[in-house]
Design a protein that fits this description.
The chain is globular, with a radius of gyration of 18 Å. The protein is of the alpha/beta class and 271 residues long. The longest helix has 25 residues. Helices cover 45% and strands 14% of the residues. It catalyses: a 2,3-saturated acyl-[ACP] + NAD(+) = a (2E)-enoyl-[ACP] + NADH + H(+). Its EC number is 1.3.1.9.
């Protein structure tokens, strides 16, 4: 069911790799709610994914951009404004990557060059995205920027490795730049801390299946799906949330505020 929440709004959606991606689901929901937008991803990710298929479904232009390059990001905004006929109203930052995680390096044996790459791609890219937008005045007043995070930014999850540090920086950038952008242009900036989600990136993390099951048993509502997350993102892009900014919003079925569940207690007791 469509509510027309984004009717007439324009945006940029990053990070759609394949149909399992949260960004992919957001694009479909945004189209359904009346938005027009461009799609972007790093050139290497585009070669691995099926973004052109999504572009056809959404009648969207695809603009390759390396989110660690301010030159690429400025080109992304300029070409998006040209394609969409004006400034944008929303931006999705759905970008994250850790060479240390991919290559199985433990947290006490990090390759620091890879560590810096994790931070640059997964966190600093948000700052670059916001700074480029502000420089070009590319986002309309009362616009909305949403970045995807994870609870490991606040709590220790050993398997999440240096991505936990990157997500902590990501959330800090959302607060710091959120204050600045709200004061200057009334643009709001938020992060969503999503349940473990079986995306292509998520399932690449060691022990994902076990933790997915654990979180499902811990959360009173169960794990939030990628489709659920997309619905939540759409509300943050809409005018219904005009006064929400600088927040890290947990979208995890209650996991973040549950101490222990009855299901887990029963398992521990061998019942």
């Amino acid at each position: 069911m469509s509510y027309g929440l984004l009717k007439g709004k324009k945006g940029i959606i990053s990070g759609a790799l394949d149909e399992n991606s949260i960004a992919w689901k957001v694009a479909l929901k945004a189209k359904e709610e009346g938005a027009t937008f461009t799609l972007t991803n790093a050139p290497i990710a585009m070669r691995m994914g099926a973004i052109n298929q999504l572009a056809e479904q959404c009648d969207a232009k695809v603009i390759p951009a390396d989110a660690t390059s301010t030159e690429d990001l400025e080109k992304l905004y300029t070409e998006s404004m040209d394609a969409l006929g004006g400034k944008v109203d929303f931006v999705l930052h759905s970008i994250g990557m850790s060479p240390n995680v991919r290559k199985g390096r433990e947290y006490n044996n990090l390759n620091y060059e890879w560590y810096m790459k994790s931070v640059d791609v997964s966190a600093m890219s948000l700052h670059k995205m916001l700074q480029s937008a502000e420089k070009l005045d590319a986002i309309n007043e009362w616009g909305s920027v949403v970045a995807l995070s994870y609870i490991a930014a606040q709590r220790a999850f050993p398997f999440y490795n240096d991505m936990a540090d990157a997500k902590a920086i990501l959330e800090s950038i959302a607060r710091s730049y959120g204050y600045r952008y709200a004061k200057s242009k009334k643009v709001r900036v938020n992060t969503i801390s999503q349940s473990p989600t079986p995306t292509t990136a998520g399932t690449g993390i060691g022990g994902f299946d076990s933790f997915f099951s654990f979180a499902e048993k811990m959360s009173p509502l169960g794990n939030a799906t990628a489709d659920d997350c997309a619905n939540y993102v759409i509300t943050l892009f809409s005018d219904l949330t005009r006064m929400v900014t600088m927040q890290n919003l947990f979208h995890d079925g209650g996991y973040s505020t549950t101490g222990i569940s009855e299901e887990l207690m029963a398992m521990i007791q061998g019942k």
